[in-house]
Amino acid sequence: MKEKVVLITGGNSGIGKATACELASLGACVILACRNKDKAEKAVAQIKDKSGNERVFFLPCDLSSFASIQQAAEIFHRQFGQLDILINNAGIFTTDLQFTEEGYELQFGVNHLGHFLLTHLLLDSLQKAPSARIINVSSVAYMRGKIDFDNLKGEKSKGTFHGLKAYAQSKLANVLFTRELSRRFSGITANALHPGVVRTGFGSKKTKWSVRLLWLLWQPFMRSPENGASTSIYLATAPRLEGVTGQFFDEKGCCRRMARGAKNEMLAKQLWRYSEEAIGGVGKGGYSDR
Ligand SMILES: NC(=O)c1ccc[n+]([C@@H]2O[C@H](COP(=O)([O-])OP(=O)(O)OC[C@H]3O[C@@H](n4cnc5c(N)ncnc54)[C@H](OP(=O)(O)O)[C@@H]3O)[C@@H](O)[C@H]2O)c1
After folding, report:
1. CB 169 within 8 A of CB 57
2. For 235-249, how does the pLDDT look when each residue is reduced to its tens digit (9 = 90+)?
3. Which atom of ligand 1 is least distant from the CA of 63?
4. pLDDT tens figures, 96-121
5. 188-193 and 85-88: which strand pairing?
6. Is 35 near ligand 1, meaning CB less than 6 Å away?
7. Radius of gyration of the chain, Cα coordinates, nearest whole angstrom
């Protein structure tokens, strides 16, 4: 991995941090794209210490803000250039209706749209790599997801917001994005994964007290972040996955048959068009019309 440049979103905690640490231990140059400077700098120091690798960096990036994502991509281009592995790992689960800077429902906005824009802005760097990989951290929750195009800004959700539905929608969007990336690009592979149920702060950040309590009680039965990172690491490193694209992998690293919603090509194209319109004039080039 010594020649590889890896960018991972949300690399300051949980699954992302464990993934970043292992990839740094394997010698890769690892960039943590994170929204919180203090947490990220602490994570960088810990990863450097644990891996013995000094090539670990913090890139400020708040996925709920197009301006911040654009700035992150500009800094990346100035300081690095080629990108071998992009791990779209960051994610949020909320039980209240909240919004991104551009007014999208927070889970759709961060988990899907923010990553859609970041990937778009980094495509030229990915295309410079001999065999780039995009890894989208999704969830089996995608199977319950439906994309409600008339409600992606929470228009119909006032007073009736259902956090799990919105989360499942965003995770289905991760898989549809993966499918469409694999259809549109050769030379770059894109795969999605479920990390398992993992002992991180995920269920207790923007959730109501009952969910936080459940999350806490569940902890003894969850996988460690290191185990939760195993499929991301496998997808990033396994030579046998060269050329494998458009697939969904489970927490054991097994390739799984997709649920019907994720195989819907029309839906994937519709989501792509919607997302392209949503990011509008932010950045130029990137995705071409296919
Ligand atoms: N844990 C599970 O059981 C489980 C199961 C299935 C799928 N997943 C998926 O695994 C991924 C990682 O989650 P995790 O369990 O490791 O949870 P986590 O420890 O809460 O990590 C999530 C990461 O995403 C970052 N993030 C959230 N909002 C962001 C934003 N607006 N801009 C930039 N970064 C942002 C967080 O930053 P802060 O530290 O600043 O909040 C954190 O670094 C997520 O995509 C999640 O959907 C997790």
Report:
1. no
2. 999 999 999 999 999
3. 32
4. 999 999 999 999 999 999 999 999 99
5. unpaired
6. yes
7. 17
